[in-house]
Amino acid sequence: MADKVLMKGNEAIAEAAIIAGCRHYFGYPITPQTEIAAYMAKRMPKIGGTFLQAESELAAISMVYGVSSCGYRVMTSSSSPGISLKSEGLSYLAGADLPALVVNVQRGGPGLGGIQPSQSDYFQATRGGGHGDYHMIVLAPASVQEMAELTVKGFELADKYRMTSMILADGTMGQMMEPVALDLKVNPAPEKPWATTGTKLSRKHNIVNSLSLVPEELESQNFARFERYKTVEENETMYEEYMTEDAEIIIAAFGIAARVSKNAINAARREGIKVGLIRPITLWPFPKAPFARAAKTAKAMISVELSMGQMIEDVKLASECRVPVTLCNRAGGMIPSPEQVLEAIRAAAKNGGNK
Amino acid sequence: MKEIQFLFSGFGGQGILFAGKFLAYKALVEGKQLSWLPSYGPEMRGGTASCSVIIGDDPVGSPIVSHPDVLVAMNLPSLDRFESAVVPGGTIFLDSTLIGRKVNRTDVNVVAVPATKLANENGFPTLANMILVGKILAELGQFTETGVDGALAKVISAKHADMLEVNKKALKLGADYKGE
Q: What is the pTM of this model?
């Protein structure tokens, strides 16, 4: 294994993107993800890439649309309010079936909110963000190493399925430093015969567009897109299970909430409580199977979130409401403590699943 | 090695984040598991700064330190804010030049170092932070030449290579400090 280096999560995303062959970054600064833009500003000119600080978030996502149309690996990054601004562009990318990587290092909302960590853009990310029927592949890293690895994965999946991949991180993941190994395996971008690279008078024009005024045609595009989404759901779901083998209580948590939950689980295990964690790594497609499996043996589930309770709906759907699911949360930039999660575990153990 | 959770706290400009970063790099050089998490709120634009560092043999769970084994308080507001959070049996390292009061807790160890005074007297007024870190390493029995040199080489960029020696001097001064 290569020597590990110490990096912030934001920097790891930027370096991994470069390793993945991304040579075009467009962004607009916003805390707590500004290090991504700063890193790109420093590195891109040295490797013949393009760093451009756009005049706005809308401009940045539109530049992503343009470069992706030409077949290149391209990305942008922002934090919650900035992602709302980019949402029009996210819908257009989906409508034009363009691959792209978009990073959201979430902060507390709604509105301008605060700058402390949050997971309250879960609905926005997993339901698409913009208007229309579409999905993004949503990846939720829980370490600096995963910030790097999922960035590479995000580019690969985006190219493979002609979709936007979103890294859904939060302020702690972006700001924290951990050792990271950057010997990342990268599958180079596939051929993109649809890209607008010039016909050289040897083929018909490629047209990249999201406007489709004939409803029959637009419907069939939607149908085809959702067939593709089905393949993604079947093949690309990722999750981690921690101490679930004998678990009577299942915690659902991603990102920083999963890290906090592991501390609580270790403490609860010392008290003899059989508790485990299912950590979705893809938030869309949501890992339904492990929750459906666990619902057959577990007595209760707890969704630990930095929001008012968003993923809990997917946990209930995936477990088909066979077991009670409770919420353990903080919001607005606050983070649940391991003690708070431990209390929720104790309560669930005491109630034995009876609400 | 048992996992140790550090919380560094002080004014912006005292090198709180840098001190934490140095410990993090030392852990990296020594092949340990670690996390480093800064405060990045409005406080880093003036006012208090803090950072959480966790070092151990096993992968780090939550990177947020709310109950430190080791609190490093470089000003009075930091001691006021975090004194009660230290785990029983933990240690508070404080800069006694800037903190006029005693620690109220009786179930923790207290190591008081007049770090700012020592830094001023020795001609490196900006390195009170490293004097404290030196003392921490000595108290923990983790002051090794290779670890210190390796970490300094990583945490100080080539552009500031002239700062290597003086940082090491500050670390040693802290490590050798035997009390007033």
A: 0.96
